[in-house]
């Protein structure tokens, strides 16, 4: 009894002393990496507090407290009758709508491919794996040409529809369904008289929730960040997402340094909400799905 | 497209009779939306692009003069036009130059950061992981604008008045840096989860044998996460081939970037500025072929490496 206590206290001491010694090399490397990733964002935050004159005249990493921040934000949101707010809204519509729908589609398809064997399921799965390798972005122009042939471009649907199916998301859902929806539970539910649809709704889908959250976040960010697809599909600036709007703003104001502070404020507004959203949701992601699921 | 439609039909026909009781129609209904959308928005556009790539515009010369321009079969002329155009190869070379710097950087930095995160008694781990992951949430276009201001002499906090970030040589580094900045955190998290899932006993055994922390990281951990490293490399290669957002966004700021600077910009310019969609289609098909070839190549290489190690 006493020896056990003794060894335990020794072990605790050992852990404590080990904890006090900092392993400097990795810590410094991580600190440099963190600075590299954070400093540009920090600079944008600071630059957004400055008026245009201050932007060029004051020290880069010293914020201004002359009220420039609100002036810039007001200038941004009143620019061209408040079109910036419209772009934010459009991005939200594209990313949430597209994210939810594509998650539902990928979840359903992944569940079916993972838990059932039906004629053509193997061929279909192989086709999807092959499609993972096909870069979606390269399809943007063929997609435009085809949609234009049927007069279906320049609306919300032309940006939403091509992004609804993600082969990679289906692949992840299939792997996850196979691993985490046990046949025994499905069998038990069948014996209890549950229909296959009911089993999917009340057994399969809840068990797949971690994968669905991950797929939603990946799709949300993918759509939010997409540029080429709206760039080719949309030529009405009321339908622009943020990325395209900011690019347009930069093109218009590109030659004139007098407009930089508006663009800087726009960059800040497009980073901060997404950064907060996704850093706060970070622990709900299962990124190990990606590294564990894909076996080369 | 017709193949996948036939596939869908045969699936529907047999599963209703054969596999009833083990799912019935449900699996077919569940995959149906994905199959339809995949056919409409992936397979059909690809097939249509191939179709277009073999055609050219012919202006009708009727007896009365004028007439509507029509598409006619053109054989491989569009492919020949792209493949013999020196600017196409130049754009490919620029892309490869950026990839030659960017891909190794994203992979090596991600490996280093992942191993540091896993190192014993390293501090600031949680903060560093979040900070390095942060740029992944920043859209490529916004990241390019952000770095654009960092590079611009007038606003640069990193010595843009001394270093010419938009010069003919500097521009390659500048574009690659935006890409690396955006991707490295995502790669790091994938590799970190791979390291974390390794059995701890192995490191303890190596430690008892007198291996240093660095040796364990490089000789034990790194070889065991090779498949994840290969996957990250594959993602980065595919990403490099799709380079478009960053140079397009930096173009208004940097004179060194032309409208056909990288292959995808050329496809865009062909299709929408020069109004030669047929040549654009041929070029995009050439690019898709190259991407698939590169993917297969990385795959084979990584398999060979993994096999050699397991021996």
From TrEMBL, chain A:
Give the transmembrane ranges: 24-46, 58-77, 89-111, 123-147, 207-227, 262-281
Keyword Membrane listed: yes
PROSITE patterns in the cross-refs: ABC_TM1
Domain ABC transmembrane type-1, chain residue ranges per copy: 88-281
Q: Name one Pfam family in it.
A: BPD_transp_1
Membrane topology note: Multi-pass membrane protein
Q: Which GO terms describe its cellular component?
A: plasma membrane
Question: Where does it localize?
Answer: Cell membrane
What UniProt keywords are attached to this protein's entry? Answer: Cell membrane, Membrane, Sugar transport, Transmembrane, Transmembrane helix, Transport
Similarity comment: Belongs to the binding-protein-dependent transport system permease family.
Q: What is this protein called?
A: Multiple sugar transport system permease protein
UniProtKB/TrEMBL annotation, chain B:
**Segments passing through the bilayer:** 25-51, 92-115, 127-151, 171-195, 224-244, 281-301
ABC transmembrane type-1 domain residues: 92-298
A Pfam family assignment: BPD_transp_1
Q: Which GO terms describe its cellular component?
A: plasma membrane
Q: Which InterPro entries match?
A: ABC_transporter_permease, MetI-like, MetI-like_sf
Print the keywords alphabetically: Cell membrane, Membrane, Transmembrane, Transmembrane helix, Transport
Q: Please, one GO biological process term?
A: transmembrane transport
Where is this chain's protein located in or outside the cell? Cell membrane
Q: How does it sit in the membrane?
A: Multi-pass membrane protein
Entry similarity comment? Belongs to the binding-protein-dependent transport system permease family.
Q: What is this protein called?
A: Carbohydrate ABC transporter membrane protein 1 (CUT1 family)
> What is the originating organism of this protein?
Kribbella voronezhensis
Lineage of producing organism: Bacteria, Bacillati, Actinomycetota, Actinomycetes, Propionibacteriales
């Amino acid at each position: 009894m006493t020896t056990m206590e003794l060894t335990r206290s020794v072990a605790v001491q050992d852990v404590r002393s080990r904890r006090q010694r900092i392993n400097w090399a990795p810590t410094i490397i991580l600190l440099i990496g963190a600075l590299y990733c954070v400093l540009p964002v920090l600079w944008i935050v600071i630059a957004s507090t400055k008026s245009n004159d201050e932007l060029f005249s004051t020290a880069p990493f010293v914020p201004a407290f002359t009220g420039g921040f609100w002036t810039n934000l007001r200038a941004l949101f009143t620019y061209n009758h408040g079109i910036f707010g419209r772009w934010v809204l459009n991005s939200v519509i594209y990313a949430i709508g597209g994210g939810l729908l594509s998650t539902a589609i990928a979840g359903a398809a992944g569940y079916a491919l993972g838990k059932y064997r039906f004629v053509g399921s193997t061929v279909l799965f192989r086709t999807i794996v092959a499609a993972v390798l096909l870069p979606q972005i390269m399809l943007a122009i063929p997609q435009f040409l085809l949609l234009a042939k049927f007069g279906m471009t320049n609306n919300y649907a032309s940006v939403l529809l091509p992004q609804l199916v993600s082969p990679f998301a289906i692949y992840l859902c299939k792997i996850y369904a196979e691993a985490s929806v046990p046949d025994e539970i499905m069998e038990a539910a069948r014996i209890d008289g549950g229909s296959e649809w009911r089993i999917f709704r009340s057994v399969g889908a809840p068990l797949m929730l971690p994968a669905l959250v991950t797929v939603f976040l990946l799709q949300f960010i993918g759509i939010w960040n997409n540029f080429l697809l709206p760039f080719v599909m949309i030529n009405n600036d009321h339908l622009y997402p943020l990325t395209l709007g900011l690019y347009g703003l930069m093109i218009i104001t590109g030659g004139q340094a007098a407009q930089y502070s508006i663009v800087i404020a726009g960059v800040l507004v497009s980073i901060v909400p997404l950064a907060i959203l996704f850093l706060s949701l970070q622990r709900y992601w299962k990124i190990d799905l990606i590294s564990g699921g894909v076996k080369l | 497209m017709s193949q996948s439609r036939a596939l869908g039909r045969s699936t529907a026909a047999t599963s209703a009779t054969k596999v009833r009781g083990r799912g019935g129609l449900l699996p077919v209904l569940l995959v149906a939306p994905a199959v339809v959308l995949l056919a409409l928005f992936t397979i059909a556009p690809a097939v249509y692009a191939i179709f277009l790539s073999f055609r050219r515009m012919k202006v009708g010369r009727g007896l009365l003069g004028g007439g509507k321009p029509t598409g006619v079969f053109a054989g491989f002329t569009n492919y020949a036009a792209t493949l013999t155009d020196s600017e196409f190869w130049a754009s490919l070379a620029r892309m490869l130059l950026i990839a030659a710097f960017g891909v190794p950087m994203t992979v090596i930095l991600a490996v280093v950061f992942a191993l540091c995160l896993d190192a014993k008694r390293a501090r600031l781990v949680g903060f560093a992981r979040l900070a390095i992951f942060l740029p992944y949430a920043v859209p490529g276009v916004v990241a390019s604008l952000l770095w654009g201001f960092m590079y611009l002499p007038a606003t640069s906090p990193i010595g843009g008045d001394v270093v010419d970030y938009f010069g003919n040589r500097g521009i390659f580094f500048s574009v690659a840096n935006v890409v690396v900045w955006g991707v490295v955190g995502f790669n790091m998290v994938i590799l970190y989860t791979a390291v974390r899932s390794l059995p701890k006993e192995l490191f303890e055994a190596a430690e008892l044998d007198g291996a240093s922390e660095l040796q364990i990281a490089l000789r034990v951990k790194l070889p065991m996460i090779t498949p994840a490293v290969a996957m990250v490399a594959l993602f980065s290669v595919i990403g490099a081939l799709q380079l478009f957002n960053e140079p397009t966004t930096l173009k208004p700021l940097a004179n060194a970037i032309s409208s056909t600077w990288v292959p995808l910009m050329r496809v865009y310019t062909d299709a929408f500025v020069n109004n030669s969609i047929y040549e654009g289609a041929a070029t995009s098909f050439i690019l898709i072929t190259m991407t698939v070839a590169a993917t297969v190549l990385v795959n084979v290489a990584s398999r060979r490496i993994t096999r050699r190690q397991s021996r």
